[in-house]
Design goal:
Heat Shock Protein 90, alpha/beta, five-stranded parallel sheet, five-stranded mixed sheet, globular
Length: 381
Amino acid sequence: RIASEEAIAANQEKSRFLAQASHDLRQPIHSIGLFTACLRDARLGLEELRLVDNIDRSLHTVSQLFRSILDIYTLDHGKLTPQADTVHLGALLQDVVKQNTEAARWAGVELRLRACPYWVSVNPGLLSTMVQNLLSNALKYAPGQPVLIGVRRQGKRLAVVIYDKGRGIAAEHLPEVFKEFYRVRHVRDKDVEGLGLGLSIVKRISLILGVDVHIRSKVGQGTRVAICGLEPTTPRVVVPKVVPVQNRLDGLRVCLVEDDANVLMATSALLEKWGCEVETHSDGQGLTSDCDIVIADFDLGTKVSGAECIAALREQRGWQVPALIITGHEIERIRQSLQSLNISVLAKPVRPPELRAVLLERVKRMDRQGEDSAHLNPPSR
């Protein structure tokens, strides 16, 4: 009994340590990524740009390894209680491809995404993580070759399929690839970055979502991985036609709330590079602002959270000011707690293209709302 109690206490202590360490480690990784993006937009010579590119590439690798370790920890401790949502599958895949544009460029890979009109009932965060891990594997093991992502019908269900033209996997390795830390090695093989956790994470999430993962591969011909069993559903809304949006965020008034000085400085500098007008706050208490959008860290200390800060500002302004939470905590738990508040959520470390895409989407929504308001309240002649 004493040994059991000690084991339980040690496990709880480890959980607390990992939770705090994950939050603390995310902060510098997050701020370095933002500072690097600022450097990329500066007037640098070719050699300096090459060095920035190498920094960014190394940081991307660290970020991927970090997320893999945290994903395994979260899955092992049963902390995920996924909520299904109605998701446009094509839009979800397009987001994952956008987030991997730079990584594909580094690997010399052309990402080809086939348009998909289907909607599915699934947890979008977990499905995105599955696709992300499969795509990362394709970039690592099939460099210099095109990668195709598409959706196929399988009876009444749908499957997301990723094809690559890499070196392939021998038949004897296929039953083992979903095991933790298992990596296929060849004689004189170039060392491939990673821990061998990607497919293990994919398998575990598939069990949570109730879908299957199938791999077909031939040495020298490439690999086909399919996430099968996705449940199609009726669209939540009519999908609007894709229209070009402004490439810059000129004049967008941003209220930025972040208690980490480095992250505050890096985020502010990057937003200003993109043309935003930024007002910064290190404390969310008594916040007042006439901004167009609020970007807040979730954890702002012991007095107020980012969500409470946003709620207070919305009450003060008398309308649902667009808002974005950036968090270093368990993103699924935060998403669930904010589900009814119309607040976007991103997990640290955030890649700058991901942040920019969310802001541009918010600008599009504001433009559409402005047009609707104009139609309802036309100016008097």
